[in-house]
Amino acid sequence: MITTTRKTRCLFILDTNVLMHDPTALYRFMEHDIYLPMIVLEELDAGKKGQSETARNVRQVSRFLDEMLADVDMTTINQGLPIHTTLHGQPEHAVTPTGRLFLQTREESNDLPVSLPGSRADNQILGITLALQERVTDREVILVSKDINLRIKATAVGLKAEDYHNDQVLDDVSLLHTGHESLGPDFWEAHGESLESWQDEGRVFYRIHGADTAEWYPNLYLRLEAPSPFTAVVREVEADGSAVLESVTNYQQERHSVWGITARNPEQSFALNALMDPDVDFVSLLGQAGTGKTLLTLAAALTQVLEQKLFTEIVMTRVTIPVGEDIGFLPGTEEEKMTPWMGALMDNLEVLAKTDGGGGSWERAATNDLLQSRIKIRSLNFMRGRTFQNKFVIIDEAQNLTAKQMRTLITRAGPGTKMVCLGNIAQIDTPYLTETSSGLTFVVDRFRGWPHGAHVTLTRGERSRLAEFAAEVL
């Protein structure tokens, strides 16, 4: 949070894009004051129409402001509005903001450089901020904006400008856990004396005592390299500091293939363990292009839908953000409109639909029809109010979702549903989203330690030597 470490009270001028990105930003500045220029209110009013996430955020901001203005004496509005309303769902022990919200009620003018015409909204905000910096002498005046160019211009004219950091899950994306760790070569020697092991229904368990368990959490995958390879998952971390491990299936072996697919590295094997585990309701897979996220997920989904009958069908969705120029409106039904965005699905289905017996074109066509009949493609735009029961839901390109959108999607899960989020946080196309504020980063961090959630970061590209080399050097 950008305000908690400040020793003195500040006055923050909020840009429109901050409120469009996070309507609750009004409540995030604790003991500091907020100033909203009139041009910001005008831009909010212009952006309130429509069904987009941004329009919904704007309408929520308007409701928050209306709530603050409900019991305010208009003769004292220049003294600021108390920010006393707590957000719905906020913990009871959460600190209530003590700052005040100031709306622009007078003309704040300042001479901008000739190169910055005041007719533009961004430049009007700069002029107001400059005027406040001169008029308000008892506090530091800071402009908060998600717009990098506006922050650059603000610095150029002598203003202090900052990004809005409250939506960031982590200070550095390198702090995001990978979901797996390597054990030291002396692991068994260090823990052998207090080691306990047993079997239950064909599953092998170990109870480990020692300092290593302090950083472990449920569904963390562990691997010990040669001479005697060992792979396990943390099932439970107990109050006395001990941890219960369970030996996991090695999906790198042909006899453990999933829909004809075998893992090519330990991380892919961990991913298949998470995807095939009936006790894990939520799985997130991170990795660059070619690491096998979609192929492994579809193989696990088809196995559990068509062979094991654990789910009734596969539901796949993704954000429809083009890489290049938009091709415009698409004809057809919801599923037909989404088909061009599902090239990754079709490419992987071609691999999974290959028959071992070298059957003819009719057999391949029948297999494709069977697979596609159990896969439903859905648009994110129509997810509100839905409940998925006994479905295997795949959210592709999840790095382009905000934390709020991700929360909306995951809460659609009904009884017997498994959710899988796939993405590469190094390829974010949504404006104002970063690696540290992406909804995918948000859920990976928040689900850490939940016994029914698992995460694996895939690091090794397996698509081709060309793709792997390109990912490294380009």
Automatic annotation (TrEMBL):
CDD domains, alphabetized: PIN_VapC_PhoHL-ATPase
Annotated GO MF terms: ATP binding
Top-rank taxon, per record: Bacteria
Xref: InterPro entries: P-loop_NTPase (IPR027417), PhoH (IPR003714), PhoH2-like (IPR051451), PIN-like_dom_sf (IPR029060), PIN_dom (IPR002716)
PIN domain mapped to chain residues: 10-152
Keywords in alphabetical order: ATP-binding, Nucleotide-binding
Pfam families linked to this entry: PhoH, PIN_4
Signal peptide coordinates: none
Keyword ATP-binding belongs to the record: yes
SMART domains reported in the protein's UniProt record: PINc
GO cellular component: cytosol
Similarity comment text for this entry: In the N-terminal section; belongs to the PINc/VapC protein family.
Protein name per its UniProtKB record: AAA family ATPase
Organism: Guyparkeria halophila
